[in-house]
């Protein structure tokens, strides 16, 4: 569900003034930066608004050791001047959190995908993916990293993406707030087209996008298909 601009501002102002989720270092986003963040979030991805209303994808897993960091911004953890990690599910606030993080740490160039269970808001998640691509970040899944459900879209968003041996992925169909899944809509419906357009925008050909989307939707939302890094390369090549 798309948050209003007022709600986005209400969520972002505490984020910028009290450390994203914890503490921003000196040079945190001020009023001008907040306005720029809101504008960029609002304009990042009109196609994402075609994603099924209320749709989300989330696959729980066991406890994972999370890396220490110097600041947290929603599900993002700053590791050092050039690296951040995704360590939790995304939601409607995550695009603003991502931009606030880059405003405070503009040299970040790599997003380490460590513990990524998915998303609570597919619209915002596709918007976030486009922001990752627009800002030129690479995505990297270390050995032991886990990228599941809607987080796979964020892996694709990297201008370069690489998964190490020992990384794992899980895919399945999205489900909207009424319990309907991708196959409950016509193939040409806006709810399905939003994902195919996204995959094309992330560099897939039309055929590759269709094959990847069909693979993910072959598994119902209540289940998951687990893939190794090597198996994912059948659809998504390391680059």
Describe the protein in words:
- The protein starts with a helix and ends in a 7-residue tail after the last helix.
- It has a single domain, classed as 2-enoyl-CoA Hydratase, Chain A, domain 1 (Alpha-Beta Complex), CATH 3.90.226.
- Helices cover 35% and strands 16% of the residues.
- The strands form three sheets. It has a six-stranded mixed sheet. A four-stranded mixed sheet has the order 6-9-11-12.
- Helix 2 (31-43) crosses helix 3 (94-104), helix 3 (94-104) runs parallel beside helix 4 and helix 6 packs across helix 7.
- Residues 1-39 have low confidence and may be disordered.
- It contains eight helices and twelve strands.
- The chain is of the alpha/beta class.
